[in-house]
Amino acid sequence: MTTYVYGIAEADLPRLPGGLVGVGDPPRPVRVLRESGTAAVVSDCPEGLRPKRRDLFAHQRVLTAAAAAGAVLPLRFGSTAPDDDAVRGALARHAELYRGQLATVADRVEYNVKALHREDVLLRAILADSPEIRKLNEATRVEGGATYQDRLRLGQLVADALREHETRDSRTVEYALATHAEHHRRGPEGSGRVVNLSFLVGRDEAAGFLAALEELRAASPHLDVRVNGPLPPYSFVRTESVEAA
Fold first, then answer.
1. Is 141 helix (H, G, I), strand (E, B) or coil?
2. Taking burial as the number of CB atoms within 10 A of a residue's CB, which of 55, 96, 148, 189 is the most buried?
3. Residue 90 Ramachandran class (φ > 0 left, ψ -120 to 50 alpha, else beta)
4. Residue that is last in its domain, among 106, 133, 168
5. How far, in whole angstroms, is CA 186 from its chain's centroid?
6. Structural domain of residue 154, as residue ranges?
7. What is the pTM of this model?
8. pLDDT tens digits for the chain (245 residues)?
9. What percent of the residues of the chain are helix, what percent strand, and what percent coil, each to the nearest 5?
């Protein structure tokens, strides 16, 4: 039976919640394999597994439960081995690599922070800050009050102001939260997204991190700041090395 691997943990990982199940329909029971001072959180792998919403959530649910019990190196969805013996063999061969990475994420969690502009609030702020933009905007509201060149000029000034705010707000979010985290990394950029940052935060520092996040929200009403976490440290594990091993 093919073995599905959710993540790598320390050998002294406490018992996972009773009845914890993972991928598949019906969901397969989760178990822990231990070898050479490390452990793997696994289940049987159903045939024809595909990244369906149900199974993606199951993969994350198992990792979240494992991370609540101790340090874990999360693997990507779909990581499998031929059987349990192959998993134990990988644990034995690469125990030093796994233990080193586990030490870097022990007692730490990940928070992912994304921020978007609230365009109506931001545009009002831009109008308030720039007499030239405000004057040109008022002219466009009067019939015959603005020429074609005036409208082009207005569009260019607004676009420049938006880009300036994107740069400034990105730095503001990063600076406000990075001081409460051990490490942070940028994620993929998206259309309309000002910030996509992941932070590695000590469990004991999480309250301070979240308090700083609320202060940032209060001070930046033009930003829609969203946080996802605590999560297993997806962004701070060399998953390529783990999965290849």
1. coil
2. 55
3. alpha
4. 106
5. 9
6. 110-234
7. 0.77
8. 799 999 999 888 877 888 899 999 899 999 999 998 899 999 999 888 888 899 999 999 999 888 888 889 999 898 999 999 999 999 999 988 899 889 888 889 999 999 988 888 888 888 887 888 888 877 777 776 677 887 888 888 888 888 888 888 889 999 999 999 999 998 887 666 788 999 999 989 999 999 999 999 999 989 999 999 888 888 888 755 555 55
9. 45, 25, 30
